[in-house]
Amino acid sequence: MRDKIKIYIIGLLTGICNGLFGAGGGTLLVPAMNHVLKIEQHKAHATAIAIILPLSIISSIFYISKSLVDWNLTLKVVIANIIGGYIGAKILNKFTDGTLKLIFGIFMIIAGIRMVFFK
What we know:
By secondary structure, the chain is an all-alpha fold. The chain has one domain. Helix content is 83%, strand content 0%. The radius of gyration is 15 Å and the shape is globular.
């Protein structure tokens, strides 16, 4: 029962963050699943991707209805993003849990520094 409550809280908070900031899927779900739910790193990354799809669809419907989507940019980025997502999924299992945590952590730190200190 406790895990169910944790899962729903994680889902609610990451959903709110995704709606507010466009982030939450990987940035919050992976550490939450890994540390709070004790899901191993590789499975946390893969599960986060599966969770992001319906989350993104719901948020996208809202943003599209408000005419907030730049379709020209979206189409260009999606093409490269599909290729990158495929490559990332193929190489995920080549990393140990520790290496995956380190790489993910470094990306999170760099993203945080850029958001706070650079415009």
